[in-house]
Amino acid sequence: MCGIFGTIGDDAAMRTLEGLRRLEYRGYDSAGLAALFDAYDRNARVETERAVGYVADLANKVNGRFKHSVIAIGHTRWATHGGVTEVNAHPHSSTDGLMSVVHNGIIENTSELLSEIKESGYNMSSETDTELIVHLLHQALGNQRTPEAALDAFSSVIERLHGAWAIAVIVSGMNGILVAKNGAPLVIGRCENCVSISSDPMTLYGSCSEVAYLDDGDVAYVSKEKIDVISDSADISFAPHSGDYSPEDPGVFDHMMLKEIHDQPTAFQNAIAGRVSADGKNAMLSGFQLNPNELRNLEKINIVACGTAFFAAKLGVRYIRRLSNVPVEAYLSSEFPADSVCGKNTLTIAVTQSGETKDTLDAITRAKVAGGHISSICNVINSTIARFTGNGAYLYAGPEYSVASTKAFTNMSAVLMLLALTISEPDNAERTRVIRGLRQMPQRMSNYLHSDIDFDPIVNQIADSNTVLFIGRGPNSHIASEAALKMMEITYLPCIAYPAGELKHGPIALIEDGTPVIAIAPDDSHYPKMEANIRECAARGANVILVTNKEQSAEDFCSNVIRVPHTDPFLSPFMSIMPLHLLAYRLAVRLGNNVDRPRNLAKSVTVV
Ligand code: AGP
Q1: Which residues participate in catalysis according to the annotation?
Q2: What's residue 542's pLDDT?
Q3: Is residue 93 within 6 Å of ligand 1 at its C-beta?
Q4: Spatial contact of 103 and 76, defined as CB atoms under 8 Å apart
Q5: Using one digit for the tens of pLDDT, what is the confidence trace for 181-217?
C-alpha cells in the first residue's frame, strides 16, 4: 500500500523518484513528489507534481524539472479517503504553498478535525484525511522556522491524531524533514552525503550505509547534521545497513509471479537449510524465545494471519496437531479473539510475508496486551512485525514482489512444518520420514517446474466460466482455498473453495453443464471419498480438473488430469499447489490482466 520516500542531499528529488520506483511493488494507484531547491529561503514555495498511474508517469510529468533540488519527499498512494485522482494524490500543500505533507495510514478522527480546520478558515482542496495535517501544522507553526519550533508544532499536531500513520513534511526555509510514525513503517537511512527516509529498509540498500528504525509514537526532525526526536522509547540509534537491493526484475520470465513460482526450489532449500539434519533425524527451528521444551508445555499456540498466510497457517495447524500434543488453532488476524484465547502460558505466532500487515500487527499486539508470549514467522527481515515480536523465524524466501504470493506460501508451510517437528516428541514415528521428505522437496519441485506442462486446454475451458469451484479434503482442503484465492485475485473470476465433504451441503447447487471444478485428490486416505465427490460433480455436468499423484485415478470422470510427482501423503500439499499457482498465472495472462499488479490489491496491506 502507500509508500513514503524522502531525501536530504544533492539531487534529492531524483533520488526520491528512484526510491518511489523501489516502493512500487507495495501496490499503489497514484504518485507524487514535493521538493525544495534552496533550503534557506523561507518564502520559496514547495515545488510539487502528482500523477495518477505509475511512478513512470510521474517521472514523465516531472521531466527533469526537479533537478538540483536539495530536499524532497515522495509518495505512492493506495486510495482510502477519496477516489484515485490527481487532486487526492499526495503531497498535499498548505494554501500558501510553503509546506507539503505525505502520509500513509488512516486518520480516524478526520471529521472532527475537519470541522475545526474549516472553522479556522482553511479550505480543503482534496477529499483526503492527509490534507488536514498540513493545515493543522500551518496553523500551529505559523512563520517560525527553527527545528525546535517545528518539532514542537508538529508534535502538537500529531498528538491530536487518532489512528495509524507514517508522515513526512517539508517546510520552506528548513533544511530537514519532519517525520512521525505510529503503526505504519518508517526508517531513516544515512550515508556520507545524504539522509533518506523510507517505508521499506530494502529500498535503502546501496544508497545508505546505516539505518535507524523509528518506533511507534516517535516524532522527529531529520536533517543531515542530526536527528531531533521526541520519543517514549530509547533514543534513535543507527546500525549498519548492508545488503544487495534485488530489483523487481523478472529476468527470463514474463512476470515476477512466474519467476517467483520458479524461485521455489531455491527458496524452499533456504527455508530448511541449517534447520534439518543430514541424517534426517533432527529438525530445529531456532529463534524463538521459548525453548522446545517450553514450547511443548504451552497451554496453547495461536497462529494469526491473513489471506494466503492464513491458509499456510491452517496447514501448519494440521502439522502441529499431527506431530505434537500442543493444542493449536489458526485465526484470521482481523477476527482474533485475543481476550478469550491468550493467557500466561500461551504463544501467539504472527505469520506474514511482508511483516507489515496491519490486521496481523493489531492481532499480535492484542495477544501481547492479553499477557501471552508472542513470536512471528516473517519473510521481510526487520519488518515491523518481526521487530515488534523480537523473536521467531524468518522464511528466507527472498524478496517477493508479485502481489500474488507464491513462494512465501510454500516457505510459510515449510517453516510451520519445521516448528511442528521442533516440538514433536523425539520418538515420534513420523519424524524421520517427514524430514527426509522435506530434504527431497527442492529437487522434486525443480523437476516438476522443468517438466513440460500444457495448461492451454484447461485455460480454454475456464476462461469463459462464471464460477470456478475448488474442492479438497484434509490438508488439501487448504490448498483448495489457497488456489481459489490465487486464481480469483489475478483473474477476477469468482473462485469458491470448499472442503469436498461440504459439497452436498450447498456448493453443488452451482454446478451446471461445463462448470469447472478443480479437485485436489492425491493418493492418501481421503482419496476414496474424493473420488465419490468427483463422480457427483461429473454426473451434474461439471468439467472436473483433477490434481493428483495417483496412477489409477478417477480420470474417466474428469475432463483433464494434472499429474504431480509422488510424495509422502503428509507433504502432498507442497506438490498440489504448484500447478494451481501456475494455472492461475496462465489464465490471468490469457485474460490480459496485469498479473503482478492486480486491480485494487496491494502487496503490503498496511491499513485495516
Ligand atoms: C496473497 O496472494 C495475497 N496477496 C494476500 O492474501 C496476502 O497473503 C495477505 O495480504 C497477507 O499478507 P502478508 O503475508 O504480507 O501478511
Answers
A1: 2, 603
A2: 97
A3: no
A4: no
A5: 998 899 999 988 899 999 999 999 999 999 999 989 9
